[in-house]
Amino acid sequence: MTDTRRRVKVYTLNEDRQWDDRGTGHVSSGYVERLKGMSLLVRAESDGSLLLESKINPNTAYQKQQDTLIVWSEAENYDLALSFQEKAGCDEIWEKICQVQGKDPSVDITQDLVDESEEERFDDMSSPGLELPSCELSRLEEIAELVASSLPSPLRREKLALALENEGYIKKLLELFHVCEDLENIEGLHHLYEIIKGIFLLNRTALFEVMFSEECIMDVIGCLEYDPALSQPRKHREFLTKTAKFKEVIPISDPELKQKIHQTYRVQYIQDMVLPTPSVFEENMLSTLHSFIFFNKVEIVGMLQEDEKFLTDLFAQLTDEATDEEKRQELVNFLKEFCAFSQTLQPQNRDAFFKTLSNMGILPALEVILGMDDTQVRSAATDIFSYLVEYNPSMVREFVMQEAQQNDDVSKKLTEQKITNKDILLINLIIEHMICDTDPELGGAVQLMGLLRTLVDPENMLATANKTEKTEFLGFFYKHCMHVLTAPLLANTTEDKPSKDDFQTAQLLALVLELLTFCVEHHTYHIKNYIINKDILRRVLVLMASKHAFLALCALRFKRKIIGLKDEFYNRYIMKSFLFEPVVKAFLNNGSRYNLMNSAIIEMFEFIRVEDIKSLTAHVIENYWKALEDVDYVQTFKGLKLRFEQQRERQDNPKLDSMRSILRNHRYRRDARTLEDEEEMWFNTDEDDMEDGEAVVSPSDKTKNDDDIMDPISKFMERKKLKESEEKEVLLKTNLSGRQSPSFKLSLSSGTKTSLTSQSPSTNLPGSPGSPGSPGSPGSPGSVPKSTSQTAAITTKGGLVGLVDYPDDDEDDDEDEDKEDTLPLSKKAKFES
């Protein structure tokens, strides 16, 4: 393996101006044929894959920062950085880059690509460096003008930066700052503001390291207080020294770490508060400042993470009952800030960070903190908990299930001793805080509801072979937690109207309903058993009477989600408890107003009609038709009534359904002898018998009497006579259970589209009741008495006679089967001759 000198991390700058870690590997330089030049190559230390392959372009500006960083831009808005483990490795690669570009390795930036005039180039080539005016009070204006004039030209910026570094100029300027302050020289202080701001825009790490050193940083902040645009100077130093206090909640023994924390806080303050908001042109000039803060934070998190004694003390004091409230609050705020810092880490580093916190016992500690009365402490603990849930919900689920198991074991022992176990589960604490949120806008409750939703979402549960996490956690949640979540709902819906209907209660119940609706959609038998056993839907529909429209709509949405599942268990529960009554009542109370409530209720009934949910259709029409029959601005309810009548007809005339079934069976299951006869007729008949696509019926067939035509049905009906009563019972049971039975409809229309067996006359088969000929005589088995409400129709077209007409929906059902069984028209004619 390559030595540690060449070990690097590869970073890219994302759209948010944050550095993304692309991986750790070992860097080398060499000629790459594909790129036609010397290139930087980084191979991952884990698997040897290529992390980076970048050609060293002669015109690209490379910067060396902090002795271990090399930063450059590959293309517009695509910045790269190599962070070396050792300075020696950084120097080696820097020399290679400078060698390709023909630069002196002592420089910290190779060049910038900006077009300049020939005169400027000549000036820059002819002068080895930039000569700064002597650092005197009388020449501050001249120095300010020099800095301002150098900023537009990259090469002049480079020369200015080198001059400032080499001559220790910044410290001399800061000495002048003290003189100006003592003399109250406002003009000089304004010039120093412009000079220091210009030095920031040079974007040089070497200069930042001088300016942000312990001895200089407060003076730099002091210079930036005297903005010429302001009538009075800011008081940043006073804030940092007197108001902002560094609290060492756990003593930090490492002086380097302590200094790094101070430095990062102050630099962050400069970036956020002191420096004016950069213009579009200046924004990229401060990229090095962003990088400086980013890498500082990474270092701080790493150093704290490696200090095992520090973290051990932190969690010990957090969970120690003897720790006083003020101290605990400070510890929690530190931990929250620590977790916030971790968000700058890259995925693999963040994994290690949260794994360390988990091993230290962060979840038991949070449980202790969330049980406290201090709202600020609880709020900080909630933020920490959200970091954990977003990072790894499975880790949180595993903890709460283990905790529940331990509590169950303890409870068994205490029950034997007749003692009550008062331990509260972490997840129940979260639910209670959601329910008890005192914020009028329920900001905290919304955040907690989102966390609960993440925890109960099966989509992010580990997909193992036996799916144990989903089964076990949902079983745990419905056993130990669901009653806590639904408690405010059940408490508020004991009567016909909500007992409390204020805005905050309505908001809370809307949140609870949102989570329950999510459960209906994503959980199966757990939520179904809970809703039916606890009569949850009836309680939810009480909220339809709320004066808050958003809450009534939440209740309606909950029911709509249940109906959308088309589950007969739910449907029977709805019908048994008459749970359409609150919806119909709300619809009637809404009157003729065309609003969201009106549309949502109509959409629900339209869904029942379109999906033909028979059990609900019958229930609605039988119980609520009188209330809904006058609604004629939509056809939904009349359509439901029509569905219901069709369904009732099928129930009242099961023989018709049976007959259709028989005819279909006869059509598709003819015995072998019939087939042989048909084949013989096929070969004995010429195709010339066909004219204009119509079947030509032979004279002998026309002279057949009605009994001969219907003879196959008579024989078939005799064979089926014994089974007829059984079929009636089966069909009746099928209709009562809500399953779709075959639709069979008789029509008296002379313009019917279809004959009995097909969509076109050509598909009639011999021996079937739809064959050419006359319908059965009144005494034949296939006839239907005229006294019945549905009478057979005789349709005549081109010499073809059909018994009945199928409704349109059955045509679609039979289309595929007809295609398989239909023979060419000429062959049909030959069969029928």
Automatic annotation (TrEMBL):
Residues 5-101 form the PP4R3 EVH1-like domain. Residues 684-694, 806-820 have a biased composition (Acidic residues). Coiled coil: none annotated. Residues 785-794 have a biased composition (Polar residues). Residues 743-760 have a biased composition (Low complexity). GO terms for molecular function: protein phosphatase activator activity. GO terms for cellular component: cytosol; nuclear speck; nucleoplasm; protein phosphatase 4 complex. Residues 684-712, 733-833 are annotated as: Disordered. Residues 142-646 form the Serine/threonine-protein phosphatase 4 regulatory subunit 3-like central domain. Pfam families: EVH1_PP4R3, PP4R3. One of its GO terms (biological process) is regulation of double-strand break repair. Belongs to the SMEK family. This is SMEK homolog 1. The lineage of its organism: Eukaryota, Metazoa, Chordata, Craniata, Vertebrata. The gene is PPP4R3A.
